[in-house]
Amino acid sequence: MAPKTKFTKEQIIDAAFEIARTEGVDSITIRKVAEKLGSSIAPIYVNFKEVGELVEEVYKKTFEVSRQILMEQNSGHPFHDIGVASIRFAREYPVLFRDLVMKKNDQAKHNEEETQGFIKMMRMDPDLNGLTDDELLAILLKMKIFQVGMSVMVANELLPGDFSEEQMIQVMSSAAEDVISAAKRRAERQ
Prior knowledge:
Layout: H1 9-23, H2 30-37, H3 42-47, H4 51-72, H5 78-92, H6 94-101, H7 112-123, H8 133-155, H9 165-189
Helix pairs in contact: 1-2, 1-4, 4-5, 5-6, 5-8, 5-9, 6-8, 7-8, 8-9
């Protein structure tokens, strides 16, 4: 008869997530997770055949955390909320942010389903009324480039030390207003 599992799968994922949050995803090992739990490696192997499976679950949890931060934003302007959530994620989880954005990995590749979800959110934003899906997609790409750049600066502490989150959001909002205004002017000329 197999020994009873001392830890749930979720507890193991949480321990691995904490390692990734502070040391990076590449630092996750079965042994480190076991140490974090104060356990032998056996309970981890009962739930995961290899470390790769556990890392996949950590990425899933990371994206869940990111979506939760997005859901907590509720300004009435969903497009704005996407940018604010990115800045907050980069500030609260800089190591994970760098792992997702600054290292080549399959987890952060373009996801068409996610893009369409953002376009759907953008359609609800009153500032974006009257723009086509192609125009919204162009705005999303431009702002994603800007927002990822700003978030990289946040995660790597490249902004002045006294630069507050409110100032970051203001800079991002100003850039978004510029991009949206330009898109609307182009649409009017067509």
